[in-house]
Amino acid sequence: MISYTQLHATNRQNLVDVLPLKKPFTVLIEPSSLCNFRCVHCFQSLKEENFLSRLRLNMDLSLYRKIIEQLRSWSGAKLKVLKLSLYGEPLLNPDFAEMLKMAKHADIAERVETTTNASLLTRKIAQGMVDHQLDYLRVSVYSPDQQKHEDITGSKLDIRSIHDNLSMLQELKKLAGRERPFVAVKMLDTYGPGNDDFIKMYQDVADEIYIDKPHNWTMTEGARFTDALYKDTAAAVQDMHAESQHRRVCPMAFTTMAVRSNGDVAPCCIDFNGGTNLGNVNRIDLKGLWLSEAWHKFMLMQLEDRKQDNVSCSRCDFYKSGHYIKDNIDGFDARKLRC
């Protein structure tokens, strides 16, 4: 299989040349907005009330089934990717294995993946991942050091259990003679010796292991989440500046749909505030929303560089990250959106 970090370079199209898309490349579905960690660099750790704190729930299986059916009946090419994760820990949903089964049987995406902290990866869930052939399992690790893990995540979990869970998954793959799910284990750059310790700790249970780069979610009250993680780490600040691109337009709305655990739909996968919600699958199906006036107006806002008109976009610089965002559509002719 292609390593996870190389997927973005495989059969890649110049986005400007293929816009507007008849359907998104990527759809994210949120099995759960709950999380068993409270990482200092994540909105899950916020003390004040926010959109997500009022919306902590597992997606109901009947709602999920409706979403899959909407995607299955949407004619045209398959999605490039269906992600069964968004703002919470997906394995908190007791129906995760059934959700995966339904997604794979519907055959609506070139690949199906999820991102998890793997602390809740039981043998039953792991067997489901192997049986139903989850394509990619991304695992977020926060430190190879127990005390630092606790300081970052607010969890007393023994970090050795994460390694053991992944070892069990790899053994189940071996017993079944399967190469899926491809396990990509990542950790945010520590800008120190912690990187090497992390690689040594997980290299025997990962199909790929890599160091990820910091980014901010949309800011809250002017606060940047990465400041809580890196504090005065000059290397982290320099790295973020080095990766920052001079862009005006966020391309997410042109390629991506994110369905929250309550059915709200946004063209964004980092907006914990809910400011980019454009509809709900209980009132309008995904195809109708993609072609709606609300979605069109949101894309126009981006092309016209009016992010200040949106409470979430006005506080976001994620779209400038050259590490995470590979497409630049600055200058795209808005009149082509109606083509």
Task: Outline the structure in words.
It contains 11 helices and 9 strands. With 339 residues, the chain is of the alpha/beta class. Strands 6-5-4-3-2-1-7-8-9 form a 9-stranded mixed beta sheet. Strand 7 (256-259) and strand 8 form a beta hairpin. It is globular.
Q: Tell me the helix content.
A: 25-40%
Tally of strands: 9
**Tally of alpha and pi helices:** 11
Strand order of the largest sheet: 6-5-4-3-2-1-7-8-9
Average residue-wise pLDDT:
93
Low-confidence stretches: none
Largest sheet: 9 strands, mixed
Content of β-strand: 5-15%
Shape: globular
Secondary-structure element order, N to C: HEHEHEHEHHEHEHHEEEHH
Compute the CA-based radius of gyration.
19 Å
> What gap, in angstroms, lies between the N and C termini?
37 Å
Quick overview:
The protein is of the alpha/beta class and 339 residues long.
Write the layout of secondary structure elements.
Elements: H1 15-18, E1 26-29, H2 61-72, E2 79-83, H3 96-106, E3 109-116, H4 123-131, E4 136-141, H5 146-153, H6 160-176, E5 182-188, H7 194-202, E6 208-212, H8 225-230, H9 234-243, E7 256-259, E8 264-266, E9 279-280, H10 286-290, H11 293-303
Parallel strand pairs: 1-2, 1-7, 2-3, 3-4, 4-5, 5-6
Antiparallel strand pairs: 7-8, 8-9
